Amino acid sequence: MIGIKSIALAAGLAMLSIGSANAAPQATPIAPVSKPVEAAPTVTVGDPAAATPAATPAVTTIDPMLAVDGAPAMAIDPKVGQPVVGVLGLQPQVTRTGAQAAWFHNWLLMPVITFISVLVLFLLFWVVVRYRRAANPVASKTSHNTVLEVLWTGVPVLILLGLALPSIGLLQAQYKPAPKNAVTLKAIGNQWYWSYQYPDNGGFEVTSNMLKEASEVGKGERARTAIDGPRLLATDQRVVLPVGVPIRLITTSNDVIHSWEIPAFWIKLDAVPGRLNETSFTIDKPGVYFGVCSELCGARHGYMPITVQAVTPAVFAQWVKAKGGTMPGAAAAPSPAVVGAAGSAPAAPTAADAAAANALPAAPAANASAGQ
């Protein structure tokens, strides 16, 4: 009997141990994998001012220098830097080379061409009327006229010489090497958009695509508005350049031949794969200027516009810093400021940041002056 009881007691203990082993995982506490819980705000009854606010979530600040198109806010002059309905002639030029070319076109080429065209038309009418059969039944037998032959050979030579001298000077000005203090802009053509690099300012890159109309955009895309510029000319990212500072323009391409053209700058430079073309210019007036690719480059050749925004050097320096770039001779610019996570205090400004802030005008004031 004792043996049977011992066996039954041992079997019962064994069953209890197996059941405890199976139930052990369910009884495991979840504390090791629990997530931290934010403390609820402490409120003192009767004293609202003593309430402790809840932790603030992480927030990324937006630099005021960057508008929706990645450039400083600036109003667009509808009569400058773009085609104007009903207006004949060249666009108003905002570079010295462009002003020289406009003068050459308006006050030298056009008068000479107009005079020659009117003279030839008059001579044709005179010959038709004077030497028609009714007025001149007996044809002249004259075969040579020394004075006339000298004139119609010498006068065109003098005209061409008079046009060649200023045109050679203009051609030289268009391809004058940039000085050492120039700001380098590298424009890279792609099918079918432009990308830009700033080698002198940290090498950051801007990609510029044409803005579509409201009826053409897809989900998540931004449509063109009136503040962006004209249809087929407005871009989602503008090229920002300083006024009064020489610009070194370098063009190349990643696929086929493109051409970077801004009519208001008197600039048209081919972008050839595997080759670097270079020119220089200086913008004299702040504003927004539009251009296009001027080399047939494929199916969407007409849909890769160029938008350049010219600002003061101080505003340009602020924009470069906002883009994460650097000015020549300055320390590397930090990435855009980010407020610390909940419970952490933001970093205190450094002495370099304070000096930079004192050296440059405030962003709103600079934007207002640039828009004038």
Evaluate the radius of gyration.
37 Å
What name does the CATH topology of the domain at 183-341 and 359-370 carry?
Immunoglobulin-like
What is the ordering of alpha helices and beta strands? HHHEEEEEEEEEEHHH
Low-pLDDT segments: 16-61, 335-372
Total DSSP E strands: 10
Shape assignment: elongated
Look at the structure and give the mean pLDDT: 78
The residue fraction in helices comes out at: 25-40%
Strand order of the largest sheet: 3-2-1-5-8
Distance between the termini: 112 Å
Question: How large a portion of the residues is in β-strands, by DSSP E?
Answer: 15-25%
Q: From the coordinates shown, what is the CATH architecture of the domain at 183-341 and 359-370?
A: Sandwich
The CATH superfamily title of the domain at 183-341 and 359-370: Cupredoxins -  blue copper proteins
Main sheet overview: 5 strands, mixed
Q: Structural class of the helix and strand makeup? A: alpha+beta
Give the CATH level 1 class of the domain at 183-341 and 359-370: Mainly Beta
Number of helices: 6
Protein described:
Helices cover 30% and strands 16% of the residues. It is an alpha+beta fold and 372 residues long. A 5-stranded mixed beta sheet has the order 3-2-1-5-8, with no helix packed on it. It has a 5-stranded mixed beta sheet with strand order 4-10-9-6-7. A hairpin with a 7-residue loop joins strand 2 and strand 3 (205-208). It is elongated.
